[in-house]
Amino acid sequence: MNKSVNRALFKKSNKLTSLILFLLLSALFLVFERTSYPGIALIRATLDDLFAPPISGVNAIMRKTSDSFSFIGDIIDVYEENERLNEEVSRLEEWRSVAERLALENQRLIDLLQVKSLPHEILVSPRVISLIGGAYARSALVNSGRNDGVESDLTVVDGTGLIGRTIHVGFTTSEVLLLTDINSRIPVRVERSGDNGIAIGTNNSDLRLAFLPLNPDIQVGDRILTSGDGGIFRPDLVVGTVTSIEEGTIHVTPQSRLSNLNFVSILKKHTVALVDDNNSNAAPQDNPENPANDQREGQF
């Protein structure tokens, strides 16, 4: 019991002694700081010399550590900035794609306004919804129909030339028989020589000319236009160009890119003037002849 009490008293006395020494050292340092006695100054200078190298070393280590943390922080900032820039680039790429698509559509619309037919002859300019291709069909579906005034056997063009004609018409959509369809028959003429014939679809990428006069004057490179015969297609629309003549078969490549249609124009119903011998001022009326009425059934 006495030993325990003695130990407790010893610990308390040690703590008290340490506190007294600390206070004395503090007071001594204050005295050193305030006094100008040469001996004290010498002691201060000696202590400064002794403690300067370790203090400098500690300060250097602290600076290095601070610089390291700053460098790590800069790396994190650069990474975050890089991520932000990557996201911005992705957004800009999306906008560029949208802008390029809109520019392409705008150019196609501009081309569509440059068709040879007069602006007042255009009934409606729909978008092509889909292209229908098969062993026995080449057609396109557009998003205009009876509600827009569309009917069967109307001429369809794009900015470069003839596309085909409307065949099946719904209230909001119409099917266009492309000029390369095997059932397509288009009265045409050779622009250079004036020879008339019929351009027949082959269900491939080209047409062939048939029902030509004997010894026709046709050369590779001749441009083929609609003749206007039959009253379905108005005259002088560009159909295509003669690309080859092989064993009497004349091949014509369409002017329009039928595999890449976007916007087209459906023209108003073509009328021809019928002149009466007794009345030369007779009003124009629709031509009742319709060589393309076969649509998909008949052959020319």
Distance between the termini: 132 Å
Poorly predicted runs of 5 or more residues: 273-300
Query: Which structural class is indicated by helix and strand composition?
Result: alpha+beta
Characterize the overall form. rod-shaped
Topology-level CATH name of the domain at 120-267: Thrombin, subunit H
Topology, number of strands: 13
CATH-defined architecture of the domain at 120-267: Beta Barrel
Gyration radius (Cα, Å) is 47 Å
CATH C-level of the domain at 120-267: Mainly Beta
- Topology pattern, helix = H, strand = E: HHEEEEEEEEEEEEE
CATH superfamily of the domain at 120-267: Rod shape-determining protein MreC, domain 1
Task: Bin the strand percentage.
Answer: 15-25%
Q: Characterize the largest beta sheet: strand count, sense, and whether it forms a barrel.
A: 7 strands, antiparallel
Measured as a percent range, the helix fraction is 25-40%
Strand order of the largest sheet: 1-13-4-5-6-3-2
Average pLDDT works out at: 76
Number of helices: 2
